[in-house]
Amino acid sequence: MFYYYYDWTYLLVVIGALICIAASGRVNRVFSQYSRVRSRTGLTGREAAEQILRRNGIYDVQVIHIPGNLTDHYNPSKKTLGLSDTVYNSASVAAVGVAAHECGHAVQHATGYAPLQIRGALVPAANIGSMAAWPLIIIGLFLNGETAVFLINLGILLFSAAVLFQIVTLPVEFNASNRAVKVLESSGMLYPDEVDSVKRVLGAAALTYVASAASMILQLLRLIIIGGRKRND
């Protein structure tokens, strides 16, 4: 068992972790920078979100205040758009940008954006895969024969569902950001130079999703290598 748990494939996990840490650090720095820049229109995140929803004919989504920092999200089942402490009542350029991004998800939901629907359908499989994959693989490593190979392959298959979820998330997030930039440009909620600042904030945020997907892919590669070793024993 020492062979499986102390080998070069741990480097893949370390690389993935470092990528995620770097992306998280960047988004925090960029958001912090532009959260200190007040929008010249004086709109708060909540006000911007409500205007964007109305501009898109969406009246059944409630904008709510949620605790935390950058915990903002759109909940399609409850039809709520949650804005965090640093966004809801803030009139910063960063806050307006984040609020507009979350509105992009609400618009995706209202218009039946296909990647969002696919991601929603993958949620159960991704949740099961992320929880069950490693226990199955670890049990398989302790066993021998066809049962071991079956459990490891099943674990890899389940983990692949979680990886697929992360990959499908990318176009969903990129599209929401593109929608946010377009509506802020066309509505006059922000001035052109402020929209450029929003692009930097949302660009940094997008890197966190890319980093997460890359980390998951590296973990999947590690599992495939470990599985291949077991099959060859």
Structural class: mainly alpha
Query: Nearest-angstrom radius of gyration?
Result: 21 Å
Main sheet specs:
3 strands, mixed
Number of helices: 7
Shape: elongated
Give the helices and strands as they follow along the chain: HHHEEEHHHH
Keywords: Membrane, Transmembrane, Transmembrane helix
Organism: Ruminococcus turbiniformis
Protein name: Zinc metallopeptidase
Pfam families: Zn_peptidase_2
Task: Name the features.
5% strand, 3 strands, mainly alpha, single chain, 233 residues, 3-stranded mixed β-sheet
Notes on the structure:
- This protein starts with a helix and ends with a helix.
- Strands 1-3-2 form a three-stranded mixed sheet, covered by helices on one side.
- Helix 3 (45-55) runs parallel beside helix 4, helix 5 (114-142) packs antiparallel against helix 6 and helix 6 (145-187) runs antiparallel to helix 7.
- It is 74% helix and 5% strand.
- It has 233 residues and is mainly α.
- The model has no long low-confidence stretch (mean pLDDT 93).
Topology (elements, then pairings):
Layout: H1 2-5, H2 10-34, H3 45-55, E1 62-65, E2 73-75, E3 80-83, H4 93-111, H5 114-142, H6 145-187, H7 192-232
Parallel strand pairs: 1-3
Antiparallel strand pairs: 2-3
Helix pairs in contact: 2-7, 3-4, 4-6, 4-7, 5-6, 6-7
InterPro entries: Zn_peptidase_2
Keywords: Membrane, Transmembrane, Transmembrane helix
Protein name: Zinc metallopeptidase
